[in-house]
Amino acid sequence: MAMGPGLTRGWARASDLARREVSLAWVCSGRTRYWTFGLLLLAAYLGNQRASIGAYDTYPNEVLPYALVRGYGPFLERFENGIRLPDHALPDFATTGRGHILSRYPVAPALLTAPLIAPQIWYRDLVEPGWDSNLYWLQKACSQMSKNAMAILAALAGALLLQLLDRMGLGRAAVPAALAGALGSDLWAVASQAAWQHGPAVLMLVVMLRLLTPGPASRAHLAGAGLAAGMLTAIRLFDVVFPAAVALGLLLTRPRDLAWFIFPAVPIAAVLLAYNLYYFGVWAGGQDGLEALHASVHGVEGIWTGRFLEGAAGTLFSPARGLFVFSPWAAPAVLLLPATARRVAAFPAVAWTTLALVPYAVLLSKYSVWWGGHSFGPRYWIEASVPLAILLAFAIDWSLSRRLALRIFLVVAIAWSIALQAVGAWYYPSSWNQRPHDVDRHHERLWDWRDTEISRCLIESRFFLY
Questions:
Q1: Which CA distances in Å does 199 have to 45, 112, 458?
Q2: 370, 321 in Cβ contact below 8 A?
Q3: Phi, psi (rounded to 5 degrees) for 73
Q4: Global confidence as pTM
Q5: d(Cα 180, Cα 388) in Å, to the nearest integer?
Q6: Are 379 and 314 in contact (CB under 8 A)?
Q7: What 8-state DSSP symbol labels residue 218?
Q8: pLDDT tens for residues 190-243?
Q9: pLDDT reported for residue 163
Q10: Are 54 and 429 in contact (CB under 8 A)?
């Protein structure tokens, strides 16, 4: 039977609409979905078009990848003239050992970023031979290259987080929760902008959870997760609570598989311990010397403080460093846990990592420098943004069948967090950390609601100056 002109046009429009829907489905599904999400995150992380935020203690991990690629080893001699103080002493982040100038910070982040920085070095060699002959410009280039590498690692972590949430059956809540974790936390304003330990640590934590979820994980996945757990601990020892919690869960539920998770981490631990003992003489390595500087640098007594409630209040509610101030979406994610706990428990690795938030918060509250020195927002909570974002996804999914007001509240909390982090990504650093008094010596400034890092960033930004 022949079709009339109207039916033909209708069929054409329907076919065109179908093609568009198929095209949209292709873009929003499968690997393309994650690549698109990761590239959008990368654009956001690099969007301010500047070099690293120039934090003092990120210097070693900015230059060490260059030293590794060039064959100098994990040493700072190539940059000695650039780091020596006027009295020829070494800065706090460096020391000597076995005839070398060493970074007191873990070198694992530099090892992880070196493959990302190597192509950037080779490209500069190609287009500008001799570009690294001048130490000043070499340091500037290392800062920019490390910023690029950290942005890539953070974007990859965000894309894997989205994939993890999808695999857990949280499709409708996956994108907003992943956006909260990737752009509504210090992963954007801090970890993707400078060579802190946090960006590589977040990636390793997401990889570990991705390999163990939804579970039960195969032995190959357990081994891969163990490698990620070992790297996570080598990058930032404080984060050992997360793989330790997963190991405890395996011990209680799948004891025969525990070895497959632990043994791959043993060589990493052995190399780290050997490095620390050989060059520093102590198992904790250079971190031991850094912690000893707290009294002189931060005006505190010792590493751990007995003022637990003060530390807990500060790390959660301080207008300068509070988690619930800079990432308010984290509060409902935790408060709604009683309603989502049963679904969370269906994923053992995620459940045990969630439980690890308790010792993590306790340790951070007891830590004498809970505010993290000169920084933007709750820097020490960056790795915890991964399990918190997963809890948020469950909370969003639960809210979809509840009152509209709750969903609106969650959306506003995420949007507000992203807006605050955008201020940090684009306008930090400001003068707030040092003026009118150094916040590391005048801790009362951490509770000043009238003059905050956010308000100072906005006031000193070009947005308000022009």
A1: 12, 11, 25
A2: yes
A3: 85, 180
A4: 0.92
A5: 9
A6: no
A7: P
A8: 999 999 999 999 999 999 999 999 989 999 999 999 999 999 999 999 999 999
A9: 97
A10: yes
